[in-house]
Design goal:
heterodimer; A: 869 residues; alpha+beta; 5 domains; ten-stranded mixed sheet; eight-stranded mixed sheet; B: alpha+beta; three-stranded antiparallel sheet
Chain lengths: 869, 123
């Protein structure tokens, strides 16, 4: 490959020199010399034409390019001549660079990229943490907010919000969107400017303020065709008329990525401390540090606790930077995954280093030869550098492609429901950084050993053909690399193993229902109703809907419930048992589910005592409640709970009646599969009506085929009812463990890659070792060693390396997996089974990887081996 | 042996020869081109003639120097066909080459004065 310009210049030089020659000859001939004489004289004068050309060419400043081309051609030939080695190195690099760039892009996007709000680092969220609820980032009540706001010094304008799902009316496409109800300072806290219209003005969260709505850019475009005249127009949200006042810019992904609508809260002064629906968000005043704000919140929390001794104990109000609050628990998982992928890169690098080291040792003779032929050290450096660069560029190119595809796949799949996915994109600096790291290490390991031979002791290198001291040094270095590789793989494998076992245990947890999960369909049914509408209208709707659905062919039973296993908890509240002394500590917030009479039968939840609800349990009949087994055990030890009375909330809340306990059912998990206990209370939906609930259908035919007809039946009764989130219970179960599964799969996949790389590394080292020891093995066999002895010798070497690696790896894993404790379910981070199993696996892999080299060793012909020597 | 007389002849010539001082070849070339465009061989002949056969410009120095000067923009080259149909590459001085020549000359003159001062008998 040559550059046209350069080629041309080269031709010109040739012609120039030729004309010089011709003129000189002609002049001499004019002075009377014969042609032959003249030519000979000029040739003499001229000197070595090649040297002249070379010296002239140097002036063009292109010599380096020419040499680079030479080096590239040479490197290319070399790489093609050893296709296996090249393929392994390039693929390892591609994998390392690809996986690292993809994962780091995700980590960077989620954890590090600044939020799209001006000075977002000055914004914090405020939570409520108290006993007995003990939610790490618990929510506050309106009363807490009022106390905070009136005492606040640190924040500019304390705001609160609560998540909401909003029914947007419209036939034929009623729609439900996710969003939040917020106080008037919400958008100014985020320093957002409306894309159109305006945001809430101060005071628009007063009790009497009209219903207002801010649309997301996406909703505005999708549902309103980006029309400006939508601003100021009336719409219907959750059955209430509301005025659209503005559109939020596209980057507004708060409080959730999918938030599309924000309404104004109406802050009616509360009569009690509860319900706990609200999260605080506020911007720090210019001169206030986060720690100062936290100190002030601690003081406020103490005052609130003193004023409300029955409600709170150990009350704190954590102030969490907005970014941390959004990222939340994803941070740890992402960091573990990132750690895993770094390990893969590290192992890959070690592998490449080991492979190149082997090749470099083998090339010492070549290098020595070149030096003795006059190559300068810098020239050798350049050549080796070119080779490494060529490898790196090939690997990097494939790697970047892989990373790009990986990030795209991840964005469209988002297996673990990551927040801030919009901030994830392939990060070019990261890609470059990873490539540079790979290249530099490749160059270091590939070049230094080779260059050792350019030191003075040329004779030794040339004479002994590499079987000398530096070869032994090279072998020791490779052994050390393989030990490191095995150790690193062990750490990864243990991590992956722990996550996998943890996931398997989690997925085998009994959620408490016995119906086959793939036979139960669940659909979210949301009725849009006005405040004026009586609950009876809604109850009648659901009873009619249930009746229609129950008569569909293939439906065995159908029921409604506003909570579902394994993690669709709808409501939870404290409660009171008649005749038992009440403290909030003793009656912590407990899952409360409103169900129709066939719920327990539909899901196969066992009735242990008493009866389930019947159609006779109506609004106006005596209130009844069914308790779960663990509630019975805790509050009625050695006593029959049936016939006792209890009520929700607290004794002071007198509006609600006591309910009679009529039955005890098995425990069902409503908060998560990994929750330790599952206390739950059930009420008939007629006595605790909710306009949004789940329809569950146990069918004898594939449930998905029922979806259409169920939707049709419901829309026949009321076309404005929203039916969405259609799943089988099996899917709900599976979705609830998606994050652990994703972590286990990803880290597991990385661990398998690591194992493969380690196997390649062991194979390489053992092959090299056998090749180096050909003579020795020949001697041994000539002296009577049997094949089995040779085999044993090679295996012993492999096992020694493996054991050393396993030893160091175990130490590393014990340290590394401690950071994973919070991600594990029902398994210790030092689980001996996992450690032993992984160790054994690695030992076996080491043996298998040395099988081929060992076999090769046994086939060494003593005569040949000795003759070569 | 035919090589013998040639060797003697060369030796004789080399006795009169002075090494061109490092860095002065550029000056000589620029000076030569001041009198008009010239090709490589012509330049070497002019220098040889003007130095009273004392300076022998080797091709191995001449062409690298020409190409270097051209790259610096001090001379320019073009192809001409001579009377006897020989295509030759001619070099000519550029404007900045003229400036460079003035600089080089004054540098040389200062150098010569300085060296003469050092070498002159003490007063």
């Amino acid at each position: 490959m040559r550059f046209p310009n350069w080629h041309h210049q080269d031709d010109e030089l040739t012609e120039e020199l030729r004309s010089h020659f011709a003129i000189a000859v002609q002049e001499r001939m004019e002075r009377g010399q014969s042609k032959a004489e003249a030519e000979a004289a000029v040739r003499r004068e001229f000197g070595n034409e090649l040297q002249v050309r070379e010296a002239t060419r140097q002036q063009w400043g292109w010599l380096w390019l020419e040499q680079l081309m030479q080096d590239l051609r040479y490197a290319g030939r070399l790489l093609v001549r050893t296709p296996m080695l090249t393929a392994v190195v390039v693929l390892t690099l591609a994998l390392g660079i690809g996986a690292n760039s993809a994962i780091f892009s995700i980590v960077y996007g989620v954890l590090l990229r600044p939020l799209p709000y001006p000075q977002a680092d000055r914004v914090a969220m405020v939570f409520l943490h108290f006993s007995p609820q003990n939610a790490e980032f618990g929510t506050m009540s309106l009363a807490d907010y009022f106390d905070w706001r009136s005492r606040n010094q640190s924040f500019e304008d304390p705001s609160i919000f609560t998540f909401g799902r909003f029914n947007l009316a419209g036939v034929p496409n009623p729609e439900q969107v996710s969003g939040a109800s917020v106080t008037s300072g919400f958008f100014s806290t985020l320093r957002l400017k409306p894309l159109a219209g305006r945001f809430f003005a101060p005071g628009e969260d007063a009790p009497s303020s009209p219903h207002l709505a801010v649309l997301s850019e996406a909703l505005w475009r999708r549902r309103f065709g980006s029309r400006k005249d939508v601003i100021g127009s009336a719409t219907n949200i959750n059955g209430e008329p509301a005025t659209i006042i503005g559109v939020a810019p596209a980057q507004t992904h708060f409080p959730r990525a999918e938030s599309e609508l924000w309404t104004n809260l109406q802050l009616v002064p509360p009569t009690r401390r509860g319900p706990f629906f609200y999260r605080g968000i506020a911007r720090l005043k210019a001169s206030v540090a986060l720690a100062q704000a936290q100190a002030e919140m601690n003081a406020i929390a103490r005052q609130i606790e003193h004023a409300n001794p029955g409600t709170y104990s150990q009350l704190i109000m954590p102030v969490v930077p907005l970014h941390d609050a959004i990222v939340g628990n994803v941070r740890r998982a992402l960091l573990v995954i990132f750690g895993a992928v770094l390990f893969v890169l590290l192992i890959g690098l070690v592998n490449i280093a080991s492979l190149l080291l082997g090749r470099a040792t083998a090339r010492q003779r070549e290098m020595a030869m070149r030096v003795s032929l006059g190559a300068t050290r810098s020239r050798l450096w350049r050549q080796l550098l070119t080779e490494s660069l060529l490898l790196g560029v090939c690997g990097g190119a494939i790697g970047i492609g892989a990373a790009w595809a990986g990030v795209r796949l991840f964005r469209s799949w988002n297996p673990s429901g990551l927040p801030r996915l919009d901030a994830v994109r392939l990060d070019v600096p990261v890609v470059i950084f990873t490539m540079v790291v790979s290249l530099v290490s490749g160059v270091l390991f590939g070049t230094i050993p080779a260059l050792q031979s350019s030191r003075p002791n040329l004779n030794a290198a040339l004479n002994e053909g590499g079987r000398n001291m530096s070869a032994a040094r090279g072998r020791r270095a490779r052994n050390a690399l393989v030990v490191a590789e095995i150790a690193l793989s062990l750490v990864l494998l243990v991590g992956g193993g722990l996550l996998l076992r943890s996931y398997l245990r989690l997925s085998r947890v009994d959620a408490g229902f016995q119906a086959p999960a793939d036979q139960v369909l669940s659909l979210r049914i949301s009725r849009t109703e006005t405040k004026a509408e009586k609950a009876a209208v809604g109850i009648a709707f659901f009873e009619r809907a249930l009746d229609r659905v129950q008569h569909l062919p293939g439906v065995m039973t159908a029921a409604i419930a506003d909570g579902l296993p394994p993690d669709q908890q709808a409501d939870s509240d404290t409660f009171v048992i008649e005749g038992q002394p009440w403290t909030q500590d003793r009656f912590p917030s407990t899952t409360l589910v409103s169900v129709s009479s066939d719920y327990f039968r539909t899901l196969g939840i066992p009735l242990l005592r008493g009866r389930t609800f019947t159609k006779a349990d109506r609004e106006d009949s005596p209130w009844t409640v069914i308790i779960s087994e663990s509630v019975a055990q805790r509050y009625f030890p050695g006593e029959d709970p049936l016939g006792h009375h209890m009520k929700m909330s607290s004794p002071t809340l007198s509006r609600i009646p006591y309910m009679e306990i009529i039955g005890i059912v098995g425990d069902v998990k409503y908060t998560a599969l990994d929750s330790t206990s599952a206390p739950a209370l059930y009420q008939p939906f007629t006595q605790n009506y909710d306009s949004r609930t789940w329809l569950v259908v146990h069918s004898s035919i594939p449930p998905a085929t029922l979806t259409r007809s169920i939707e049709r039946e419901i829309h026949n009764i009321d076309p404005e009812v929203i039916v969405n989130r259609v799943n089988t219970l099996e899917q709900l179960m599976s979705d609830s463990v998606e994050q652990p599964r994703f972590r286990a799969l990803l880290v597991g996949a990385f661990a398998m890659i690591a194992l493969t790389l380690a196997a390649i590394g062991i194979f390489g080292v053992m092959s090299y070792s056998v090749a180096q020891r050909t003579g020795e093995i020949g001697v041994r066999m000539a002296l009577g060693a049997r094949r089995i002895d040779v085999l044993r010798m090679i295996f012993r070497e492999a096992i020694a390396l493996a054991l050393l690696g396993i030893f160091f790896g175990t130490i590393g894993a014990l340290v590394a997996t401690r950071s994973m404790t919070k991600l594990l379910f029902d398994i210790s981070s030092t689980d001996p089974t996992t450690f032993l199993g992984v160790g054994l696996l690695l030992a076996i892999v080491a043996l298998i990887a040395s099988l081929v080299p060992a076999h090769r060793a046994t086939r060494i012909d003593p005569m040949n081996a000795l003759r070569c020597e | 042996m035919p090589a013998q007389p040639a060797m003697n002849q060369m030796k004789a010539r080399y006795q009169n020869r002075i090494e061109i001082l490092q860095g002065t070849l550029d000056l000589l070339i620029l000076q030569t081109l001041q009198w008009g465009p010239q090709h490589g061989y012509g330049i070497s002949q002019v220098i040889r003639f003007k130095s009273g056969e004392r300076f022998d410009v080797e091709t191995g120095s001449l062409y690298p120097a020409l190409h270097r000067l051209e790259r610096n923009g001090w001379i320019r080259s073009d192809w001409k066909t001579s009377e006897n149909k020989q295509r030759v590459k001619q070099y000519r001085l550029t404007a900045s080459g003229k400036k460079q020549l003035v600089n080089e000359r004054s540098r040389w003159e200062r150098l010569a004065v300085a060296i003469a001062g050092v070498l002159s008998p003490q007063e």
